[in-house]
Amino acid sequence: MSTYKGKKVGFYTLSSGAIEAVITNFGARIVSLRVGGVDVVLGFDSIDDYFPQNHASDFGAIIGRYANRIAKGRFAIDWDVVQLPRNNGPNCLHGGPDGWQYQPFDVLEVSPSAIRLVIVSPDGDNGFPGTVRAEVLYSLSADGALRIDYSAATDQPTVINLTNHSYFNLNGTDKTSPLTDIHNHTLRIDADFYTPTDNTAIPLGKHMPVDGTPFDFRSAKPIGRDIAANHPQLHIGRGYDHNFVLRAPSLDNPSVFLSSPATGISIEVFTTAPGIQLYTGNFLDGVRGKGGIAYPVRSAVCLETQQYPDSPNHSWPESTGRLMPDHPFSSTTIFKFSQQ
Fold it and tell me: Is 185 tagged catalytic?
């Protein structure tokens, strides 16, 4: 245990028999996730390593109040313009410089296979209006699934976008230094469209077909097959860092499939969120994580189920990013693991 902002933070180990997870209440992060004894997420060994003065990382964190980017850190609520801090060029990224990934959550309950955490974000927190109370429930099941249930309520109109920012490397994260890249990972995304961006990673406002582009993952293919293609959107993100418009998100059928031929470990992603941000670790810089292993560029892939980036500034009916007092927010994502 350690202390941050006057609250105790530490590690909690969960197990279902099929998988084992270590969670910390600092940023409600996934610290490790073992499938068949193989750790498949990036992170640090010590709780203190997660503190922003030591490493300003999003490894395994719950991102809020608004995951991804808001253009110019600005949006309107009831005709009032809200100005947020801009911590990513001209934009606000992941809730601002002091987002929820850097906040201690309170532990409401913990069992051998589940933990429920809560954060109360006051009115004006990082510039966001309204007091928001948000809960995150992590639960493991015997069939190898990690389920994340999100809920949030507010006392005045505001915005919300919650996701988990785990960095996956299904080749295993505790064997080699530096890590192998994730180009060999096979990926399928059930999406006919993605949201192209300007050169600051803000959506241009329209959905573009993936057909005939490097963004077509409707049939499974290695991540590395087209990542270096001469495509302007790949130049902007230095690889994939884009939102995909999921065709039919549900908890009945997976929207995403990821697998490693090296370990035979795979993930099926089920979600109620309308989109998923595919990020291929393009800005990892060799920071040393668990066991002193270096994490170089593209040594992990993030699958961030979410509202679309900058939703409050667009007119997408399926993704508004709004949170109203009479309409609490809820969302669920399931990462189901297996190994051949």
Answer: no
